[in-house]
Amino acid sequence: MRNANLFKTSIILLLSVWLAVFVLVPNLLVLVASFLGRDESGFIKFAPSFDNYLRLLDPIYLRVFAHSLGLALLTTMVCLGLGYPFAYFLAQFRPSLRPVLLTLVIVPFWTNSLIRTYAIRSLLAAKGLMNNTLIALGLIDEPIRLLYTGSAVLIGMVYILLPFMILPLYSAIEKLDRRLVEAAADLGAGRWRRFWHVTLPLTLPGIIAGCLLVFMPALGLFFIADVLGGSRDLLVGNFLKDQFLDARDWPFGAAASIVLIGLLLLFLSAYAYSLKQFSAEENH
Amino acid sequence: MIPSQHIPLRPAFSTFGQMKSPLPCILKIISSLLLCFYGAIASGEVQEIRLFGWSDYLMPEILDQFTQETGIAVRYTSYDSNESMYAKLKLLNSGGYDLAMPSTYFVDKMRREGMLHAIDKTKLPNYKNLDTRQLDKPFDPENQYSIPYLWGTTGIGLDTDKFKPQDLQAWADLWKPMFVDRLLLPNDMREVFHVALIVLGYSGNNTDPEHIRQAYELLKKLLPNVRLFNSDAADVLFMTGEADAGVVWNGAANRIRREQPSFQYVYPKEGVIIWMDSLIIPKNAPHVELAHRLIDFLLRPDIAQAISEKVGSATPNLEALKHLDPKVRDNMTIYPSDEILSKGEYQTDIGEAITIYTQYWEKLKAE
Amino acid sequence: MAKFKSGYMALIFGFLYLPMAVLVLYSFNSSKYSIRWEAFSLDWYRSLATDDTLLEAAMNSLLVASLAASLACAVGTLGAVGLYRYRFKGRKLLQGLLFVTLMSPDIVMAVSLLVLFIAVHVNLGFWTLLLSHTTFCLPFVTITVLSRLEGFDRHLIEAASDLGASEWQAIRQIVLPLAMPAIMAGWLLSFTLSLDDVVVSFFVTGPEFEVLPLKIYSMVRLGVKPEVNALATLLFAVSLGVVISAQYLLQRKPQ
Question: Are C226 and C51 contacting, i.e. CB atoms less than 8 angstroms apart?
Answer without folding.
Answer: no
